[in-house]
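Morning run. Coffee first, then this:
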Amino acid sequence: MGLFDLFKKKEVVYEDLELGWMQVDMHSHLIPGIDDGSKSMEESLDLIRRLSDYGLRKIITTPHIMSEYYRNTPEIIKMGLADLRRSVEKEGINIEIDAAAEYYMDEVFLDKVVNGEKLLTFGPNHILVETGFINRPQMLLETFFQLEMAGYKPIFAHPERYQYLIGDKKLLEDLVDRQIYFQVNLLSLTGFYSKQVKDFAEMLLERGLIKFFGTDCHNPRYLDMLETLPRSKSYEKIKELQVLNSGL
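And here it is:
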């Protein structure tokens, strides 16, 4: 061994991404052409094949429903799901595919809830909801209340990404006290969005406040970055957390 060999930095070898512990991804955008997710069936199949290779047994894909931008309906989503399932079966990809929706919280959505309109759910009447990232919606807590009164269990999509929540400890504790379920994006723990988002996600993880994980996969870039997750200091912790994905 030469003198300089003593000072060579030992190369760190990271394990490959493995999501078998999660079993079910309940947040993604894989029905092609109906929101800001996959743009084609070919892209969807490539993404689904990769997700299957990570060890997932089921995907519940969740297209956006937003009154201003993505005016999807349960009928549009179910038609897209049927096409996607046929293509997945034809390609011989061994994974179960289902669909719900990611609902944007606004006045239009609140009216749907109050008026008893049929909404897309997964599991035991879970419904995935999101807000804008900067400003807290005035009807946030009222919408959660109305959802629960209507018999739904709201799942708050990627709370670690909301700037208004990161800066409002009281609101966070109010949501925890109300037992609102949090779904964190695995990508948040890689630093994909920002260091601030990563830090907040790690705090939620340390406190045991995460009930679901999701990929929130939109395109290949998301999975490329997701494959760096084993380098995260949180990787072993998330596999040990008792999340609810596997029961879906």
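The mean pLDDT is 95. Good start to the day.
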